[in-house]
Amino acid sequence: MEKVPMTAAGYQVLDDELKRLKSIERPSVIAAISEAREHGDLSENAEYHAAKERQGWVEGQIADIEDKISRAQVIDVSKLSGQQVKFGATVTVVDEDTEEEGRYQVVGDHEADVKSGKISLSSPLSRAMIGKEVGDVVEVPTPGGVKAYEILKVEWI
């Protein structure tokens, strides 16, 4: 069983979502199915079919989150340090062509959100940076061609 690396914050988000699905969404769907059943003929009951479809989605989400939690390898970023880029590091880079700076934290796949500066461990940029240090230049294949980034700073926040 392959472990899923994640930060403590990412684990908490998953745990909160699982609790919400089990305590709010699941009972809500069960009530909607019960109510729709009372309307009679189920073969032509759109409300019933919509509620059953929603139930399938909710149960799928619950199973997916439970799977991730069971395989979670929670990594406390605050206890990490070092000069090399690895999981949990917050890295400041500069695009060598445009001189544009970017700041990204390397996180687990389900935590990734580029708009908030969190990139997946499996992203091309993360894979290129892992094991590198300040001053190293990494080349990243992109749809528009290879881009080069210089690592300016590695932080553990």
From TrEMBL:
<dbReference type="Pfam" id="PF01272">
    <property type="entry name" value="GreA_GreB"/>
</dbReference>
<keyword id="KW-0804">Transcription</keyword>
<dbReference type="InterPro" id="IPR006359">
    <property type="entry name" value="Tscrpt_elong_fac_GreA"/>
</dbReference>
<dbReference type="InterPro" id="IPR028624">
    <property type="entry name" value="Tscrpt_elong_fac_GreA/B"/>
</dbReference>
<dbReference type="InterPro" id="IPR001437">
    <property type="entry name" value="Tscrpt_elong_fac_GreA/B_C"/>
</dbReference>
<dbReference type="GO" id="GO:0070063">
    <property type="term" value="F:RNA polymerase binding"/>
</dbReference>
<keyword id="KW-0238">DNA-binding</keyword>
<dbReference type="Pfam" id="PF03449">
    <property type="entry name" value="GreA_GreB_N"/>
</dbReference>
<dbReference type="GO" id="GO:0006354">
    <property type="term" value="P:DNA-templated transcription elongation"/>
</dbReference>
<dbReference type="GO" id="GO:0003746">
    <property type="term" value="F:translation elongation factor activity"/>
</dbReference>
<dbReference type="GO" id="GO:0032784">
    <property type="term" value="P:regulation of DNA-templated transcription elongation"/>
</dbReference>
<comment type="similarity">
    <text>Belongs to the GreA/GreB family.</text>
</comment>
<keyword id="KW-0648">Protein biosynthesis</keyword>
<dbReference type="InterPro" id="IPR018151">
    <property type="entry name" value="TF_GreA/GreB_CS"/>
</dbReference>
<dbReference type="GO" id="GO:0003677">
    <property type="term" value="F:DNA binding"/>
</dbReference>
<dbReference type="InterPro" id="IPR036953">
    <property type="entry name" value="GreA/GreB_C_sf"/>
</dbReference>
<comment type="function">
    <text>Necessary for efficient RNA polymerase transcription elongation past template-encoded arresting sites. The arresting sites in DNA have the property of trapping a certain fraction of elongating RNA polymerases that pass through, resulting in locked ternary complexes. Cleavage of the nascent transcript by cleavage factors such as GreA or GreB allows the resumption of elongation from the new 3'terminus. GreA releases sequences of 2 to 3 nucleotides.</text>
</comment>
<feature type="domain" description="Transcription elongation factor GreA/GreB C-terminal">
    <location>
        <begin position="83"/>
        <end position="155"/>
    </location>
</feature>
<feature type="domain" description="Transcription elongation factor GreA/GreB N-terminal">
    <location>
        <begin position="4"/>
        <end position="74"/>
    </location>
</feature>
<keyword id="KW-0805">Transcription regulation</keyword>
<protein>
    <recommendedName>
        <fullName>Transcription elongation factor GreA</fullName>
    </recommendedName>
</protein>
<dbReference type="InterPro" id="IPR023459">
    <property type="entry name" value="Tscrpt_elong_fac_GreA/B_fam"/>
</dbReference>
<dbReference type="InterPro" id="IPR022691">
    <property type="entry name" value="Tscrpt_elong_fac_GreA/B_N"/>
</dbReference>
<dbReference type="InterPro" id="IPR036805">
    <property type="entry name" value="Tscrpt_elong_fac_GreA/B_N_sf"/>
</dbReference>
<keyword id="KW-0251">Elongation factor</keyword>
